[in-house]
Structures are given as C-alpha cells and as structure tokens.
Design brief:
- The protein is built from six helices and no strands.
- The chain is mostly helical.
- It has a single domain, classed as Tetratricopeptide repeat domain (Serine Threonine Protein Phosphatase 5, Tetratricopeptide repeat, Alpha Horseshoe).
Amino acid sequence: MSNLSLCYSKTEKYQESIDLDLKIISFEPNYDKSYARLFSNYLKIGKKDQAVYYGNGLLKFDDETKKKYEELINEINEAQKSLQSEYDAIRAKERKEMLKNIAKYAIPIIVLIAAFGIYFFYFKRKRIAK
C-alpha cells in the first residue's frame, strides 16, 4: 500500500495518496513515511492545517527518525509559523469587527442611560421641591 501511495503522490494524484496513507496509519500508527507523505500531499492541495497536523505527528517520532526527515521538519516548522500568523490575522480581524459592533450599540445605550438619569433627577427634584 505504501508503494502505491508513493506512486499516486508522484503522479500528482494527491487525494488518492492521502486516502491510502490515512489507511496505513490507521493500521500502523508508527509508519513515519505516511506522515511525511501526508504532510507533503496536504500542503500540495492547499490544506495547510491538515498538513501541519500530520507534520506534527512526524515530530513525535524518535531522534533518529527526525534526523532522516530534517529538511521536511524545517518545512513543517515554517508551515506551522505561517498557519499561526494566518490564525492571528483572522483573530485580529474578528476582534476589530467585535469592537466595531460593540461601539455601534454602546453609544445608543449610553445615550439612553444618560436620558434616564436626567429624567430621574428631574422628577426627583420636583418631588423634593413640593
């Protein structure tokens, strides 16, 4: 199955290769070649989050295995940093939208509270004066 997955990957049939490698790691969770191929193939089809997930799976192997994939591990780290910066940008955009929405509703609420305060003090003063 691993050789067939490699052939699919070489012939740019990435999804077929991914499907096979997922089956391989379900039977043999410590098969490092599948994790490496999953990282590369997911990256090639533009699914960076899945690529980083399986790349991190490769990082859990022993030092000897990591040394074998030293160049790929550098790519994993770069992809992880890139993905983190994308997430940070999304969070910043969401925060900005949230603050915009808060400001949109905060001003009318503050005006209502102020109006209530003025109204309350006005009628309370009239009662005291009587």
